[in-house]
Specification:
By secondary structure, this protein is an alpha/beta fold. It has a single domain, classed as Aldolase class I (TIM Barrel), CATH 3.20.20.70. It contains eleven helices and ten strands. Strands 4-3-2-1-8-7-6-5 form an eight-stranded parallel beta sheet. Strands 9-10 form a two-stranded antiparallel sheet. Strand 6, helix 8 and strand 7 form a beta-alpha-beta unit. Helix 3 packs parallel to helix 5 and helix 7 crosses helix 8.
């Protein structure tokens, strides 16, 4: 059995980045995230005009596309990078229409696995094609990340939890665009987390959208979720670094330090002891969301 994407003894953390933004820094950034024991890098193959992304991630995708980033260049970079990672796991996010439409599902699953990806999230996959893609991923042994919303019907929630075996179900905090916070706050998602757990107790639940501070991480933990997904806030920090001539790795490490200040462990919402953070060894969505994958 492959190592789980998120730990069992503390809240997990996934960070979303567009591959190719900033250009030629993926390896440096990923190795720093590995050192800081971030659990998952949701690495997007950039695509234009995403209807579910806010302006920060859309600008990032535009920069990455202008730098020539494609599905093939991302796989080439991962092939070199993933053998060097000791803790960080890479989950690929690719848009069906822009990156995968003309690719064979089985060949795509094999290529992603060979590059070291630990799971695949296919954005905006047409419902009629889901069975073929799900079968190809199962045949290859590559888990899929599924998505759902608090307002999703019970059968959609159950299917999302079941189909994410080996990966996680991405609970999008609310309808809207990445970078925006749910009006009722993240703690209000506890009931949806419980529903997902009932459907598939072994499937981790990760919450994204509007997660940008240590307080937001605490609120996600209070729902009983296994992990938080941070995207727009991290991408904005990289954009700030580029605009001001600052080092991208240093700035993202500082962002992680602010996001996860050292603190003692406390009981999580499910009653077990769980630390709310790592203590960094050095001074360290929201991601692009798709429509429900089931």
């Amino acid at each position: 059995m492959p190592e789980p994407l998120f730990p069992q003894d503390r809240p997990g953390l996934a960070l979303f980045l567009n591959a190719g933004d900033p250009a030629d820094r993926l390896t440096d950034l990923a190795l720093m995230l590995d050192e800081q024991r971030v659990d998952v890098l949701e690495l997007a193959v950039p695509f234009p005009d995403s209807p579910t992304d806010g302006p920060v991630i859309r600008r990032s995708a535009t920069r990455a596309l202008h730098a020539g980033t494609t599905w093939d260049t991302v796989l080439a970079d991962l092939t070199d990078l993933t053998p060097r990672l000791r803790h960080l796991k890479v989950v690929l996010l690719a848009d069906w229409s822009h990156s995968l439409r003309h690719r064979d599902p089985a060949a795509t699953a094999r290529a992603a696995t060979a590059a070291g990806a630990r799971a695949l999230l296919v954005h905006a996959l047409p419902p009629r094609l889901r069975p073929a893609w799900q079968q190809a991923l199962r045949d290859e042994g590559l888990p899929q990340v599924t998505t759902c919303y608090p307002a999703s019907a019970p059968d959609v929630l159950a299917a999302a939890a079941r189909d994410a075996t080996g990966a996680y179900v991405y609970l999008v905090a609310h309808y809207g665009r990445s970078g925006t916070t749910p009006t009722t706050g993240h703690r209000a998602l506890a009931a949806t987390v419980a529903t997902l757990r009932t459907a598939a107790p072994a499937t981790p639940v990760a919450i994204g959208f509007g997660v940008r501070t240590a307080a937001d991480l605490d609120a996600v933990t209070a729902t009983g979720a296994d992990a938080a997904i941070v995207g727009s806030a991290a991408v904005a920090r990289l954009e700030h670094a580029a605009a001001h001539g600052l080092d991208a790795v240093t700035e993202l490490r500082a962002f992680l330090t602010d996001l996860r200040p050292a603190r003692p462990p406390h009981p999580d919402a499910r009653g077990g002891p769980r630390a709310t953070t790592h203590t960094p060894t050095t001074p360290g969505t929201t991601t692009r969301e798709e429509q429900p994958a089931c």
